[in-house]
From TrEMBL:
UniProt protein name: Cupin type-1 domain-containing protein
InterPro entries: Cupin_1 (IPR006045), Germin (IPR001929), RmlC-like_jellyroll (IPR014710), RmlC_Cupin_sf (IPR011051)
Localization (cell): Secreted
A cellular component annotation (GO) from this entry: extracellular region
Protein keywords: Manganese, Metal-binding, Secreted, Signal
Length: 236
C-alpha cells in the first residue's frame, strides 16, 4: 500500500489545507523569465520597493489558526530566477500544517519560537522521521518527501522555511488522494469505506494552517493557556 492509512487519516482531519499563491504580477514574472541577462532583469525591477517583501503585511500572516506566507516568484517577482523560496510559518496553539509534499524543492525549516513537532517520510520503505523543534533548531524535508508539523505548545510557534526553488509546488495528501475515483481510493484504503464521501469533507485550500487535535486544544484550555496572539501592528 503506497500510502499509510494513519497518515491519510491525519490529513483528512485537518480543517484547512495549504493555500495556493496568487500571482502578484504575472506579466512582470514572464518578462523576468525571458530576460537575456541579469542587467536586463535589473531594469525590470527599477525601484528599491521591488526588492522588499514584508511577511507581516501579507493576507496569510495570522496565528488564528495560522498561516504559510511564501516569498516566491508568484508573490515576490524579484525572487523569479533566484532558485529559492523563503516562507514564514505561523502556528497558533495546537495548530498544524496538514501532510503535504513539495514536488520541486527540498525544505529546510528553522524554528524561531514555540515548540513544533515534525514528521517526515522520504519514500516507500523509509522510516518516519520525527523531531521536536525549539528556537534555534532545524530539520530538513528532502524534495518530494511527505511531511507535516504541529505546534504542540499552548503559545504561538513561528518557523522559517527555505526551499531551493522559486516555484516549489505543494501537493496536499488528502486533497490529492481522495480526488481519485472511488474504485481507486476505496480499494487502496482497504474497501468498505466510501472514499468519495470522505473527499466531500476534505476542505479547500486556505491560509495554509489548520486547527489541530482536539485533545491538544482541550489540554491547553484546561491549563488556561489557550492563547492566540495576533501580531501587533507595526509603526509605519
Amino acid at each position: 500500500m503506497f500510502l499509510r492509512l494513519g497518515f491519510i487519516t491525519f490529513a483528512v482531519v485537518a480543517s484547512v489545507a495549504f493555500a495556493v499563491d496568487v500571482d502578484k504580477n504575472a506579466d512582470l514574472v514572464a518578462k523576468l523569465r525571458l530576460a537575456n541577462t541579469n542587467l536586463d532583469r535589473m531594469t525590470l525591477l527599477p525601484d528599491d520597493a521591488d526588492w522588499l517583501f514584508d511577511f507581516t503585511k501579507q493576507d496569510k500572516y495570522t496565528f488564528s489558526p495560522g498561516g504559510v506566507i511564501n516569498a516566491n516568484s508568484a508573490t515576490f517577482p524579484a525572487a523569479t530566477g533566484q532558485g529559492m523560496t523563503m516562507s514564514m510559518l505561523n502556528l497558533g496553539p495546537c495548530s498544524m500544517l496538514p501532510p503535504h509534499l513539495h514536488p520541486r524543492a527540498a525544505n529546510y525549516v528553522v524554528a524561531i519560537s514555540g515548540t513544533t513537532q515534525t514528521y517526515m517520510i522520504a519514500e516507500n520503505g523509509a522510516r518516519t522521521v520525527t523531531e521536536i523543534l525549539q528556537a534555534g533548531q532545524m530539520t530538513i524535508f528532502p524534495q518530494a518527501s511527505i511531511h507535516t508539523m504541529m505546534n504542540i505548545g499552548c503559545e504561538n510557534a513561528q518557523l522559517i522555511s527555505a526551499l531551493n526553488s522559486d516555484d516549489t509546488g505543494t501537493t496536499n495528501l488528502a486533497n490529492a488522494f481522495f480526488s481519485f475515483p472511488q474504485n481507486i481510493s476505496g480499494t487502496v484504503i482497504g474497501g468498505g469505506l466510501n472514499a468519495q464521501a470522505i473527499y466531500g469533507r476534505v476542505p479547500s485550500f486556505g491560509t495554509g494552517s489548520s486547527a489541530g487535535p482536539h485533545d491538544c486544544i482541550a489540554a491547553c484550555a484546561k491549563k488556561g493557556k489557550m492563547i492566540k496572539r495576533e501580531p501587533q501592528a507595526r509603526n509605519e
